[in-house]
Amino acid sequence: MKNNTKTLFSGIQPTGDLSIGHYFGVIRHWLELQHQYQCIFSIVDLHALTTITNPIALRENCYDLMAWYLACGLDPKKNILFLQSQVPEHAQLCWILNCNTYMGELKRMTQFKDKSQQFAQNINASLFSYPVLMAADILLYQAELVPVGHDQKQHLELTRDIALRFNKQFSQIFTVPKPVIAEHCARIMSLQDPTKKMSKSDPNQNSTILLSDKPNDIVKKIKRAVTDSEAIVAYDDARPGISNLVELYGVITGLSNEKVESDYTGKGYGIFKSDLAELLVNTLQPIRLEYEKLRQDEAYLSSVMQAGAVTASRAAKQTLQRVHAAVGLLG
Question: What angle do CA 38, 29, 273 make, to 5 degrees?
Answer without folding.
Answer: 165
